[in-house]
Amino acid sequence: MNIEQIYTGCLAQGAYYIESKGEVAIIDPLRETHPYLAKAEKDNASIKYIFETHFHADFVSGHLDLAKKTGATIVYGPGAKTSYDIHEAHDDEVFELGDIKIKVLHTPGHTPESSTFLLIDEQGMEHAIFSGDTLFIGDVGRPDLAVKSDLSQEDLAGMLFESLRNKIMTLPDDVIVYPAHGAGSACGKNMSKETTDLLGNQKKVNYALRADMTKEEFIKEVTEGILPPPQYFAKNAMLNKTGVDSLDDVMAKGNVALDVETFEAMANHEGALVLDTRHQSDFVKGFIPNSIFIGVDGSFAPWVGALIADLQQPIVLLADEGREEEVITRLSRVGYDNTLGYLQGGIEAWKAAGKEIDTIVSVGADTLKEKLATEQINVLDVRKPGEYQAEHIEKAKNTPLDFINDEMHRIDKDKEYYVHCAGGYRSVIFASILKSRGYDKVIDVAGGFGAIVKEGIPVTDFVCPSTLD
C-alpha cells in the first residue's frame, strides 16, 4: 500500500494518491491530471476510482478529465446530484482497491453530501481517514457553503457536530487524518500549518473535538467570526456539480503568444482584462495602463477568484517568460477558463513598440513615518480584519482587499491615500485596482506592516473605526 499527499501550496489543498496491488484511487484531484497519471504509470498501475469528499467551492476538480482519460469511476457520498455520471455511494459502502478497502462515512455538515473516506489496510485495520473539509488539522470546515441549500449555517453546524461525534471521534486514536486543506484556505477559520496528524492528537488539541463540548457550544464556536466566503466559491461549487471544459482545450486556447498589436486590440476592443502576474516590485515601476496586478508568486488563484467577479471574463496575460503555462493552469484551477493569450516579449515588447506605461508611487516605511509625524494623511490598511485588530497604525482605516469591490464607493478620488498590507503584495493589488478605475492619488508602502513595525512607527491593538465613513 502506498499513500501520497499531493499538496498545492497556493490553494492550501491536499489531493491524495492511494495505490495497492496495481490499483489506484485518487481523492479530491486538482484540475490538471498529469501528476496522477504520471504516478500511476510509474507504478505500472491503473486508476480505478476518483473519490470526491464533497462539491469543492475553492477549486475546480479534475475528476471529469481524469475519468475520461482513465475510465475510473467518480464516487461521491450520499445526496450528491450531478449533471454527469457518478457512483453515488451509500453510507458505509465499501470499495475494494487491491488488498485494501475504502469505506464511505457520510459526514454532512460542511455540505450536505460531505463524506469522509476510511481506509482499511491489508490487515483489516482502520488506518486513515481522508476527511475532506469535515475535519482539518486544528479546525473543522465552515458550515455556510452549501450550494442552493435550504439549510442554515446553524443547521449544517449541528449536522457537523453529529458527524464528528458519531462517525469520526469513535475511530481509534492511531488513525491518520488526511484533510483536504491546511493553513491559508478560506474553507475554515484557523487551520494548522501541519497537513496531517493522528486522530488521537486532534481529539486533544482541536477545539471542535472537545469531549465536554455541547452541541450548542459547538454551533456557536464554529459559526462565530466567519468572514463572508469569496464570491467565486458558490460558482466553483456549481461548476463541480455541472462539469467544465477539458483542461486540454482551455490550455490550447490560452497558451498563445500575442504580438503587441493583437494584445492591445483584445484589451481595447474585445473587453479583455489585462492581468499582470509579475512581482509587485516590477509592476510598480512600469505597467500597461488599466491592467490589474495579481502576482503569480503570491496566493494567486484565490485572489483572482476573490477579485474578478466574472468567471467568463476574457483575460490576456503579462507574465514572466516561461511561466505563461503555469499562470493559465492556476487560473483554470478556480474556473477562469477564458484566457486568450499572453503578451510575447512582455513589458519590454510593449515599451519597444512605443506604447504608454503607467506607474504606481511606492515609498518606504521611513517616508510614511515622516508623513505621519508632520501631516494629516490617509492610511488604508488592506489586511484582513483579524490582522488589523491584532495590531495597526492608530489612524489607519481597515479596508480589506477581500472586499474592495464593495468598498470602492467609500474612497474619495480627490484624496491621497497611503496603502499598506502585511508585506507589500496585497497593497499593490489594491493600488492597481484603484489606478485602473481612475484613482490616481494612491501611494504604496513597500514592505507593508513588517517594514512599518521595523521602522518604529507607533502601532496599537485598540480597534478603532474600520470603515472609511
Describe what is shown at a glance.
With 469 residues, this protein is of the alpha/beta class. 32% of the residues lie in helices and 21% in strands.
Describe what you observe in this structure.
The chain is of the alpha/beta class and 469 residues long. It folds into three domains: 2-235, 4-Layer Sandwich (Metallo-beta-lactamase, Chain A); 245-352, 3-Layer(aba) Sandwich (Oxidized Rhodanese, domain 1), CATH 3.40.250; 361-460, 3-Layer(aba) Sandwich (Oxidized Rhodanese, domain 1), CATH 3.40.250. It contains 17 helices and 24 strands. A six-stranded mixed beta sheet has the order 1-2-3-4-5-6, with helices on one face. It has a six-stranded mixed beta sheet with strand order 7-8-9-10-11-12. It has a five-stranded parallel beta sheet with strand order 13-17-16-14-15. Helix 7 (247-254) packs across helix 11 (324-332). The longest helix is centred in the middle third of the chain and has 16 residues, at 153-168. It is globular and about 70 Å long. The mean pLDDT is 94.
